[in-house]
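Dissemination and training. As part of the outreach component of the grant, students in the summer workshop were shown how a complex can be specified as a set of sequence lines and then modelled as a single object. The example used during the hands-on session is reproduced here so that future cohorts can follow it. Participants entered these lines:
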Amino acid sequence: MQYTSPTKTGYFGKFGGKFVPEILIPALEELEAAYDLIRDDPSFEKEYLYMLQEYVGRPTPLTFAERLTEHYGKAKIYLKREDLCHTGAHKINNTVGQVLLARRMGKKRIIAETGAGQHGVATATVCARFGMECVVYMGAEDTERQKLNVDRMRLLGAEVRPVTSGSQTLKDATNEAIRDWVTNVEDTFYIIGSVVGPHPYPMMVRDFHRIIGDETKRQLLEKEGRLPDHIIACVGGGSNAMGIFYPFIEDESVKLYGVEAAGYGVESGKTAATFAKGTPGVLHGSLSYLLQTHQGQIALAHSVSAGLDYPGVGPEHAHLFDIKRVKYVPITDEEAMDGVRLTSSMEGIIPALETAHAMAYLEVLMPTTSSDELVVINCSGRGDKDMGTISQFI
Amino acid sequence: MSVERISSVFTKDRVDPVMALFITAGYPEPSVTPDLLLALEESGADIIELGMPFSDPLADGPTIQYSSEVAIEAGTDLDKIFGMVKEVRQSSQIPIVLMGYINPILHYGIDEFFKAASESGVDGFILPDVPVEESTLIEEFCRKYEMALIYLVAPNTSDARMRLIDSKSQGFVYCVSVTGVTGARDGDQVATSVQRFIDRVKQNVVHNPVLVGFGIKSHEDAKRISAGLNGFVVGSALIDTIRKNYPNSDWLDQTKAFVRDIKFGK
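and obtained this result:
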């Protein structure tokens, strides 16, 4: 199959678009034009790859998970080690790309939204590195739950603004960041942290993360001489998953699994499983799947993992779901905790709670595999940030 | 009726500015909305913009976020809003424009929504998160039920785009006076550099009347900012006034007094 999404107007199949106030249209057009310029600009690529290599620590290893493989006694398991990126998660691939673009556009002020604080830290980090003003919006409830990351951002020179509107979590932080952007559109660049938002963000954030999949492909060809049979990644907004999936979309033999957070269970009413329970709708500038009420209000999501605790999902995932190229599966809070224990005790890697959802899916997938198959899991982040939550479960 | 009902307000020989008032449906309580709308008309409102509350109003400031939360909490949904409009229509021909975000409409079903709105006596729509790029579907149904689709222009909207928006709009064009979210502002903030923008709007929006909004909270603001345009919109300042007085026994009188002051001066 040939895969060319998105269209010029920002549609992945019937999802995506630009559902934003008029004030933001010129800003999105300016961003699109600037992004078009740098996409094929070797000098930008050089700058971006230099930063990824010398600052982020890429390429990240593709680690053979020997004991996990023995444990299941089926397919060989590899971990793409995004947890080894500077700041502890894949998020920084994107913030490096966007901050370099912001500099080229002459923007002086950066804003971002954050849930657990990982994207906020990754944004504050690159802003410190390039000496740019940085304001991070974070739900007031999250600033309490993730105090360590708030302190990290402040140490890095960012201003953290607690958001007290709505549910005081990621979706409200995103609303507030958009309101800031609407107000300060002339000099401000909004670094969105996932493959969500209006066009061109879902495409641009995907492109800045595709290095995960490109490296995986190259590394596995070196190690095994072939493509993987299965790739697993967790999906909240879906940036790490798009990053590793994208270079494999046209490789039809590679099965792709997006693991979403079921919270207490898909039918519990306390879930973040957007594909299991959601319907199409518009949130934060694009048409995608959403958790919503019978009145079309946005529902509150729940997941033990703050990074997956979001009622929407990127529009490209909605398209990949629709065309059945990716299988989306739910994993509960409890199963994710088992994933943390398993990966920590067997591989000496404490995964982020988000990543643990992908790990937990091994329990479902591995029995169906055979010993001549290859499984890659995107190990999207490290779990140090989650020790407060994890401690309550062990 | 719809588009004509809006247009009938903008008569050629009209000298005073048209006053449109925004109020969130279901605020301060769903049961009072119909009477409140009639009271607004009685006090001088020429057009009602009735807000359809949404959980994530990203173009709105704290005041409308608050009124939306209260309204949703009290059970305001689209069917209840159509009921409110029907009730008002029994005794009033004031143009009523629904203003809100696209998601609840998509969830309701686009065709069903426009049909029900039309039957209840709604005349038009302002959908701040549906720019012309995304309006194809909506336009089709607005035409089908002969209702007005009102677009917004902002200070950073280019001349060419203003002309495009003018050609797509019906009823009037909503001119956002400042870059930012909704909310009452100090007069100076609104005045700054707004004149050059208003001049551009006058040059480029030629097929539709223009109402200016965002930040207006007094008669003086309204007079100054709408000079040369067809009128103005007040929303957050009205809701702030209700919030200050509700549920005191004289809240409705205070609200009417505020509206008259805006329209005629103290």
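Chain B has one domain: 2-264. Students were then asked to discuss how this feature might be tested experimentally.
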